[in-house]
Each structure stands twice: as C-alpha cells, then as structure tokens.
C-alpha cells in the first residue's frame, strides 16, 4: 500500500475521532447542586451570574413565579443539568410523582462572531489568563461580541401545564445555571456554542500564529540592525540612527530589550565587544543561536517523558444499599418509556453494587464471573427484571402493567409472568427452573424425604420425578438441584401450582411452613 493511500485510509478515522471529541466537549452534565447556605436560592456571587439573572428577571411576566422558582432551586428540586450549545435542560420535581422537563434555549454565536471573540482573547493574554482562573473579564463579555444574554434572549420551555413565561420549574433551572456560571464561565461559552477544550485548542493555535509573526518581525529587525547588513548601510546612508525613523518614515520594530529613542542617549549607544545582541540566544560552546532556534519550544519526547506522579486516592466506601436513579419526566416526546429506563438504570446500579461488594473494599477480590446474572438467557433475565423491579410490592396497577408488557414481549400470558416472578423470588434461577422443568434426582435425600415426613406426623405425599404431591389438599414440594425444597400450593383438585413461601433445606420445615399458611 502506498504512503498516500495509507494516509487517505487513516484520515477518515482521525476525522471521526476528532468529531467524537468535539461532540463530547460540547456536552456537559452536572449533578444536582447542593442547597445554598444563604436564604437566596441563587446565591449568585459573580457579576456575570447576576447578569444572567437580570436577563431572566427582565423578561419574566410574573414575579411570583420567579419567587417560587427561587424556592425550588433553594430546596433542591432541580435534578441533573445537561448543557449543550444553545440548550440547557434538567428535570425539576414539582408536586406530582413524576418530574417535569424544564429547558432554556439561548442563541449560539455565529462563526464570524466566534472569530472576532477569539481574536480578541488571543491578542490580550490577560483575558485568557482570567478565563483559566475562572473569571470572565467585562471587556470580553461586553465587547464587540456580547456573551451574556440580554432581555428576551432566554427562551424557557417546560412540560408542565403552566403557561407562565417562565414557569417556576424553568425559573428554578435558570437560578441553578447562574450558580454554575459562578463556578465556571466556560459554561457560558458552551451555551453560546463552543466547548472548553475546543476553545483552548483554538486559542493555542491563534497564539502560536501571533507568536510566529512576532518572531519573524523580531528576526527582521535584528537582521536590519546587524553590522554590514543592507538595512544598516541604508540607514547610515540616509542619516538615520539605528533607533530612529527609517528613510520610509516608518519606525523599525525593536527587539525585546532594545531601548527606544526616548531613552537618554539610547539611540547612539554602542554595544560593548562580546555582548550578545538582544533577541538572540547562546548555544553550548558560546555560539549564538538564531531567533528561530531559540523559540522552537520543547521536544515532544521531553514533554511526554515518564515522570513520577502522585498516587491515586483510595476508593470511596461502598454504601450499604444501592441508590435509586432519579425519576424521569413522563413526556410524550421521549423516544423511550420513562418507567422502563428507570427500571434498567436501577437494575444496573444494583448489579454494580453487588459486583463491587463481591470484589471487596480494596478491589482485590475475585468475584465469580463478569458480574451477577451477566449471562442469563433473555427469558430468565426478563423474569429477573420483573421480579426485582418492585421486590416488596404486591400485585399493584404498576406491576400488572409491567407483567402485561413482559408478556407481550415474550409471547406469554400475564399469569405466566406472575407465576415466573414468584418462582424467581422463591429461588432465583433454580426456582425458575423448577417451575418449568422436572428432573429425576438420584437416590438419597429425595428417597428419605417421605420417611421423614411420616415420622413427623405430616401428610404422606406421592412422589413423581422430583415432586412430592398431595393433590387433594393442594400441597406440593419440589426438590431442587441445590438440595433445597420448594413449597407449592394449588386449589384442591385444580393442579394449578404456584410457588408459595421460601425454599427450605429439609422437607419437614418446608411442608410445616406450607401447612401453617
């Protein structure tokens, strides 16, 4: 493969990777903010944060809604906030069980506006220094390109039925965004269209361009002032001094450290023998390096060389119980069912918690397999999800709806799903296997079970495969491959068996518990 063809083959992959980095840089997610210390829900400290709230207040139609929004922000009703160019969105909990989806839109800057803004930052290093220190200079924010939104530029939206502009949910979101702006003005730049990494890379390129132009100017000035150069002889012929105006009437660009004509006697001062001319560097051996060599920077292998780094902090302690994900807004325009996504998120958290608990506090354990229930077939995993969705709830309207959805997806009936869920809760994968299949246990515990039941004065059960059954009373014990006994019951004579109660290690205890119901 030719080098040119190889470059053409690799270039699309690099472009795709760069595009992914830009997309990731243009989206930031912030966890719910802690409640402020003061009585003001916004607790805005920076002038640009207050300017954001001024834009909100100037376009609000109802001051009372702003007050309720401030209280919502102070009381922690605003959940995770996601910010992308021109859009801020979050779920805000109101008086209903499901939160609302609140959103604020702001116009993004055009390419021409970004060029002017970045040129202004690159030309003034103090502005970049302020941004890196999480400060927003007024001259930058209120210059030719206005970064801060003005009156009417904040467009609030919400899924709640309130037609206020803004409603209290969108107002609460705006108050929390002001706090985010306080901590990091790059959030404002992201809202206007560019991510932090993207901006810093572009500013580095522009600064490099400015530096290269300045280096060329200094090199040309030094060459013009060098003894015997054409520039020096022409200046001498014209009667101009080295620091004074040239024959063209334009002042030459002085190098760093060169005194101007305003200094006393500076124009006619002559460098002493052996002195290094300003703007040059000295290499090893006393040779003088060119300005280009002096400004070539640091070699990549030196910048990327391995060096000692501080050790990572210890991992956080594992909580006693897995947490619950926040409730999602129940809006019709979502491309998925909110309850289903909440179920999957809660399940992922529970499995991660179990995996970390098996690994131990230092992570040095060896949990069996890639994780709890990681390789279950689709049917068993669907039953597991349905069984763990509401482990302590009875047959409520929510669980009935869940069973209907699982039944429709798996080609079974809701009664089959409810029976399978009961079996899973009784014994996990083994309990579900006993519900659906029989097996022939070897001689031993199963054969001795009938004698143990008779000796305890319990009813005699008829054996069949791994089942011991009294169809008249509607009682049954199923012997599992884990050597446990699983109680079942049915309406007498109906042969409609349902898992009932927990599994037990001996048949006497399992049947005694079943008879006590």
TrEMBL record:
Under InterPro entries, the record lists: Znf_SWIM (IPR007527)
Region entry Disordered: which residue ranges? 1-44, 207-332
Keyword annotations from UniProtKB, A to Z: Metal-binding, Zinc, Zinc-finger
SWIM-type domain location is 143-178
Q: Is the Metal-binding keyword given for this protein? A: yes
- Locations of Basic and acidic residues compositional bias? 207-218
Pfam families reported for this sequence = SWIM (PF04434)
Which residues fall in a compositionally biased region of kind Low complexity?
9-19, 219-252
Stretches with biased composition (Pro residues)? 310-328
Q: Please list the residue ranges that the record marks as compositionally biased, kind Gly residues.
A: 257-266
Recorded protein name is SWIM zinc finger family protein
